[in-house]
UniProtKB/TrEMBL annotation:
Protein name in the entry: Sodium:proton antiporter
Keywords, comma-separated and alphabetical: Membrane, Transmembrane, Transmembrane helix
InterPro entries with a match to the protein in the record: CitMHS_2
Record organism: Candidatus Schekmanbacteria bacterium RIFCSPLOWO2_12_FULL_38_15
TM helices/strands, residue ranges: 12-31, 37-57, 69-90, 102-125, 137-158, 181-202, 223-240, 246-263, 362-381, 401-425
Length: 427
């Protein structure tokens, strides 16, 4: 990654980010129709404020340009996977029993490490929704986000963007599988167990006659548009291309275009495929990327004075901020701070080797929390909002921004993450 200049920022410049988060959380509760038609106004309106500040007041337009390039890479990856996955139609046998749902989510968690959380989410969310269409509820979508869109992708650099950045910095590709598989399996197991009992409770409430009819009429398992797997592989391989600049994005866009124009119309129709979900994600995250720059810069300049010294403290700090900021730069900032704590430099290969051998617990804590805590809000990870949007288009009633946090994240995820801290990072 190229070096960028970080200058001291006025703390007041954090306000646009806070206002955007409040807008995403509150405005849909007040007037959902207005929000659905006008979310571009707060997103782009607040996003332009830090752009003006960095360009004309800090004279550091290159910092914002760097974020702009990161946004282009982010939305190109998200968008291309969205298009390609939209050309693959998978029909499950229609028996959306609690056991079947647990198996599908567990498979999704594994696939997340091979296709990334975005790829796995886009591939599986539609068949998951259709399998549960006669009793789809908000908790189905929430647990899908928890497991497939976030926690599942914690074992490989392909799984989630922060881990890929760590790989580019010198973390061995298979390091996390060796050091974190047990934490991953323990956490996935806990979340799946909770989901199973919740799903079983509501499954039993569905009229027995309706259950029998749906299970008896289960559609024959089939898949169409499988040629798009080739385009999917091309996109995943392109992730590892760094030079020349924008070649990676050009390949991804070409793969998405190839997928879209070679996929039969009936496949798109069966998937209810349209561009509204990716449009919403693109616009909202344009504002998020712009407004979060002052927050990240302040964090990088002040991380050393925050008194964060133990792996457990890095676990909570990285995690909580990853839930409301982009987890990739948050991961890098705290990884850099942990290197500095031990008088090491992040971009020095020799220091990376020393860090992995002698202080690996810090890397383990930062990596796990950056991925896991992306599940605590809709904006914690790129696929979250997209899964929500696709689910709502399919008729699922998803919880609001605050409803997601209060009803699910706080009572379910935070206690689980606290247990993970107690067992693995407390010392």
């Amino acid at each position: 990654m190229e070096n960028i200049t970080i200058l001291p920022v006025n703390p007041l410049m954090i306000i646009p980010f806070a206002l955007l988060l409040l807008s995403i959380a509150v405005v849909p509760l007040i007037n959902k129709e207005w929000w659905d038609n006008n979310y571009t106004i707060p997103s782009l309106g607040l996003g332009i404020i830090p752009i003006i500040y960095y360009t004309f007041f800090l004279k550091n337009a290159s910092r914002m340009a760097h974020t702009g390039f990161e946004y282009i890479s982010f939305i190109t990856l998200i968008g291309s996977l969205f298009v390609v996955a939209g050309g693959i139609h998978i029909t499950i046998m229609g028996r959306s029993t609690p056991h079947a749902n647990v198996i599908l989510l567990a498979v999704g968690a594994i696939i997340s490490n091979l296709l990334g959380t975005t790829g796995a989410s886009m591939l599986l969310i539609r068949p998951y929704l259709k399998a549960n269409k006669y009793r789809i509820s908000g908790y189905h979508v929430v647990f899908f986000i928890f497991i497939v869109s976030n926690i599942g992708g914690a074992l490989t650099p392909i799984g989630d963007p922060p881990l890929f950045l760590g790989y580019l910095k010198g973390v061995p590709f298979f390091w996390l599988i060796g050091k974190a598989w047990h934490i991953w399996a323990f956490t996935i197991g806990l979340v799946l167990a909770i989901f199973y009992f919740i799903d079983l409770h509501y499954y039993r409430k569905v009229k027995e006659k309706l259950r029998e009819e749906v299970e008896a009429k289960g559609e024959e398992a089939r898949a169409s548009g499988l040629h798009n797997i080739i385009f999917l592989i091309i996109i995943l391989l392109a992730v590892f291309i760094n030079e020349p600049k924008f070649l990676r994005e050009i390949i991804m866009i070409a793969a998405a275009a190839g997928s879209y124009f070679t996929t039969k119309k009936e496949v798109h129709e069966r998937n209810d495929f349209h561009f509204a979900p990716i449009n919403e994600v693109a616009i909202l995250f344009a504002g998020i990327f712009a407004t979060m720059v002052p927050c990240l810069d302040w964090l990088e300049l002040n991380a050393g004075t925050l008194g964060i010294r133990t792996p457990g403290q890095f676990y909570w700090s990285t995690g909580i901020l990853s839930g409301v900021l982009d987890n990739a730069p948050t991961y890098l900032n705290f990884l850099s701070a942990s290197f500095g704590l031990h008088s090491l430099q992040l971009d020095n290969p020799v220091h990376m080797k020393i860090f992995i051998e002698e202080h690996w617990k810090y890397l383990q804590a930062i990596s796990i929390s950056a991925v896991f805590f992306g599940a605590i809000t809709y904006i914690g990870n790129g696929p979250n909002f997209m899964v929500k949007s696709i689910s709502e288009q399919a008729g699922a009633k998803c919880p609001s921004f605050f409803g997601y946090i209060i009803k699910y994240s706080l009572p379910i995820l935070i206690p689980i993450f606290a247990v993970v801290w107690f067992l693995f990072f407390r010392g």
